[in-house]
């Protein structure tokens, strides 16, 4: 487990082992890659980040991951796999599940986004971008990205 303070000063614990925390994950983050580019979105206030958000109603975390990715990027994902989770100790602590996924279908015509839509970055562009949201710049995201980038062959060796 990795412990750190996020850029808002909250204590965070990150685990790459499932069911580490007693709090159920009700937030999601999705990491997907297509044709050597990572799927991100440009949030109008926070900056560039992976798609994600809150679980709504009785949906599962995977259903939330699918929905949030479509809402924020208009990209359908498939083969969604649990990757990590982290617990943020805010006034009301919450747990976020991190998923890796493959890109299924990219809808380019619609503009019905909660964000500024899909943004595709190479690994180098992602690692050196100055417009990343605060979520993307903390020690936890660096650890997640390090592990995900080590799996680049997972995306590069599959057909979409």
Automatic annotation (TrEMBL):
Keywords: Hydrolase. The keyword Hydrolase applies. Residues 21-145 form the Nudix hydrolase domain. Pfam families: NUDIX (PF00293). InterPro entries: NUDIX_hydrolase-like_dom_sf (IPR015797), NUDIX_hydrolase_CS (IPR020084), NUDIX_hydrolase_dom (IPR000086). This is NUDIX domain-containing protein.
